[in-house]
Amino acid sequence: MAVVVQSSRGWVLDACSLIDQEYSRCIRWRDNQKSHIKCHFKRQCFQISKSHDSVKATATVDGGNSDMQQKTNKVAKKRKRKHSQLNQGEVDSQIFHEKIRSVIVEETKSLVDSARSLGHLNGGTDTVKELLPFQACSLAALCEMAKELPLVDEEEQECVQSLVAEFGCTSHVDLFSRVTENKADWATAVTLMGEEYVIPPHTAFLLSDFKRIQPLVNYGRKFDLIVMDPPWENKSVKRSRRYSSLPSSQLKRLPIPLLASTNCLVVTWVTNRPSHLRFVRDELFPHWGIEVVAEWFWVKVTTSGQFVFPLDSQHKKPYEVLVLGRYRSSADDSISSSKTSEVPVEDSRLIVSVPSALHSQKPSLSEVLKRYVGAEAMCLELFARSLHPGWTSWGNEVLKFQHMSYFTLTPADDPADIS
């Protein structure tokens, strides 16, 4: 069950099941031969069973955190750091945290209790002892290399191509300057750039950065839902060097008005840095003509329903923010009826799930957002690191979590003739 709980407070998701439901039918092409398989995302990636807390304090969603607070106070005394020594960003973070703290505690408790009553978030009984999969993603580097290739005249080249040619051939697929489509009703496992990837059904993607985003615009589609997870600048990213970050000001270069349909729902993942949140609300969305309609929170819990980090930690919080807005083109200003058909987006909703142990992997929002845009909506993800059925995706690591190393393969129980 991908959506474990759905209520007026929000949702509890089984993120791994959300992925698995996309690959129940899969064809694998190898040496021009096809076989029928099932792909399962490795569940050990979602077996976060303990709270990450260096002082051994456990912050539960029951609201009782006195023990955690006492130990946090001891650490604070040891550091002898006064409130007056906090910089402005830290002060802003504390103010924002105190503003939403009661919502996070109360709403998460309600959702977790509901999930537990259904047999979920009770500690997990299928703990997998296998090591986490590791695949050194070189996609961003390949995008950098592709910049050196001459740009093809747009009038002389189609901006879209099929993933698989006759007999499963993918040798001539241009991933960097064309949108690639898998129009099949089943997932397809293929070799691209010497590596094997699993591509969901009815999906399209473009592997590129800003300098090669024009094929996505030329694709000619207007999207009813746009989700983006920008590589925000922060200290931990700089230290880890896991991926290249992007200055906030560069985000304004995204051609959202050329990609969004009227009343398009735009959803942006934001870090807990207040300056990033203010930038999205006060600069980025207005720059694109987007009206902010809600703020949601992704709350990360362990398999037993505890926050993955102490709620009042000074360093990492167990939640992230999503800012939701509606695109209002200039033509909409005089048409009051343009908003009548859209489904109102409630504020302060929570999405609760066990996070992935793989850095930067977010839960799929497809099931959560479809009621606000309709089941037949055209959906786009920007800065994507994975693919979803029915979606178009763009980014310089767009195939990252589609690599075969993240999946377990099993023969199809009923390899029916798929043609």
TrEMBL record:
UniProt KW keywords: Methyltransferase, Transferase
PROSITE patterns found in the cross-reference section: MT_A70, N6_MTASE
GO cellular component: cytosol; nucleus
Annotated InterPro entries: DNA_methylase_N6_adenine_CS (IPR002052), MT-A70-like (IPR007757), SAM-dependent_MTases_sf (IPR029063)
Organism domain of life: Eukaryota
Pfam family, one: MT-A70
GO terms for MF: nucleic acid binding; RNA methyltransferase activity; site-specific DNA-methyltransferase (adenine-specific) activity
Record keyword Zinc present: no
GO BP, sorted A to Z: methylation
Family: Belongs to the MT-A70-like family.
PANTHER family cross-referenced by the UniProt entry: N(6)-ADENINE-SPECIFIC METHYLTRANSFERASE METTL4, N6-ADENOSINE-METHYLTRANSFERASE
Protein name as catalogued: Putative methyltransferase-like protein 4 isoform 2
Naturally occurring in which organism (per UniProt): Scophthalmus maximus
